[in-house]
C-alpha cells in the first residue's frame, strides 16, 4: 500500500514565530483565574516564550520541564489559544449499554433493602443488557450508584468475662495454666 503526503503550502513559507493573536493581558488574566495548576504552568510557559521572548528550551528549564513538553504546549497555544492549554477530556471506550438502562438497574439495586452481592448485580446486568462485566467493574458501578458495602457487625467479640476467656485458652505444657508475672 502506498501513502503519499500532499502539502498545500511550501513548508519553508510557514512562519513559526507569528505574533500571538491573544493579548498578554488576556493570558495573564486567564492564568490568575485558572484553578488547575498544570494549566497555569502551561500559561506561564506561553507568557515566557511568546511575550517575554525566551526560547522554549530556556523557558522549560526555568519551569523545571522538558523542552519537548514546552514545544507541545506552545504549539497547542498557537493552534487553539488559551483553550488549547487546558487539559482535554479523553474520550475513552464508549459504554456498551445505554445510560438509561444502567440507571434503571442502579435504581433497582439501590432501592432494594435486602442487599445485593457483586455476583448478583453482575448477573442482573448480564440478563438485562446481554453484556458481561468483570466483577471489579460491577463494583465500580455499584459505588457510582451510591450503594455501600454492608459489613456484618462483630456482636459477640469480647463479651465473655475475662476469667472465662482465660479459662478457655489452652495451658502451655509444664505450666499450671495461670500466668505469674515476674516469677522465674
Q: Which features would summarize this protein structure in a list?
A:
single chain, 48% helix
Structure in words:
With 184 residues, this protein is an all-alpha fold. Among the domains are: 18-85; 99-145, no CATH class. It has 8 helices and no strands. Helix 1 (24-33) runs antiparallel to helix 2.
Class by SSE composition: mainly alpha
Count of individual beta strands: 0
Main sheet overview: none
Report the span from N to C terminus.
Answer: 90 Å
What does the secondary structure layout of this molecule look like, with pairings?
Layout: H1 24-33, H2 37-51, H3 56-62, H4 67-80, H5 99-111, H6 118-129, H7 135-145, H8 162-168
Helix pairs in contact: 1-2, 2-4, 3-4, 5-6, 6-7
Short description:
The chain is 48% helix and 0% strand. The protein has helices at 24-33, 37-51, 56-62, 67-80, 99-111, 118-129, 135-145, 162-168. It is elongated, with a radius of gyration of 32 Å.
